[in-house]
Amino acid sequence: MGCQFLGPSYAADLEDAGFVICPFPYDATASYGTGARNGPARIIEASIQLELFDEELETEPYQAGIHTLPFPEGMPIEPQKAKKLCQHIAKELFGQGKVPIFIGGDHSISIGVIEAASDTFDRLSVLQLDAHTDMRNEYQGTTLSHACVARRAMERCNVVQAAIRSSSKDEWNLLKNTGALPITAASIKRDLKGATDNILSRIKTRDIYITIDVDCLDPSLMPATGTPEPGGLDWYELIYIIKEVTRHHRIVGFDVVELAPIPGIHYPEFICARLIYKMMGYIFLSGAKHK
Fold first, then answer.
1. How many domains does the chain have?
2. Given phi > 0 = left and psi -120 to 50 = alpha, else beta, which region is 161?
3. What is the pTM of this model?
């Protein structure tokens, strides 16, 4: 697993890197379609096919320095141990002034990273781009399930949810009672600018962590995920939201999770690699990366 994001020719040493790719092939809490443990390797492999030049930004984001960590050895199965490993990796990188980019794996990997971010930054918001609310307190015997990510994050910091189009009644009522109803995919599709302005108005801090479940995208673009939902975002809707958030806030880190590769279909992992590189470009040009 010695693969480097973009390939070895463009790999920076850790001390020189602004961005650090953190592959975390864990999907022990997956509850429907499995295989997200294979996502990190496939995304990194696909990244080698990316053009280094971003035509929108007219820059080459890799110049900020990209280092790829080795795949963890002895990946734990127990959710608490997996969370602690993610938390440890993220805390080390935040402490070194890096922008960590975690590649999952199922969405549960975000819990430890968000905890590390909230411990590092005095005031932090989380933007969750996701088809599902992930607000269960416990699911399938653990409070650290992929279905509990937002609930755990809300115990730590301000959370803004967008692209939502699936929720249990209890989750929805909890969000409604706390005045934190999500920004739905339908509202984004009706009025992209208005919905994005709504997202920005709810982010109360300069520092923000972005967690992206790939099922925020429509299944026509992203069939390779455990629980696809119809009516998702298209590429330009997703990119517009991220670009605007990056313009107004400092992105301290982000993750892309829940890619479950489908044999013989390559475009989902390429989309993920392109998304990661595009976000690096926005962060690089905004001057938001850590100094």
1. 1
2. beta
3. 0.95
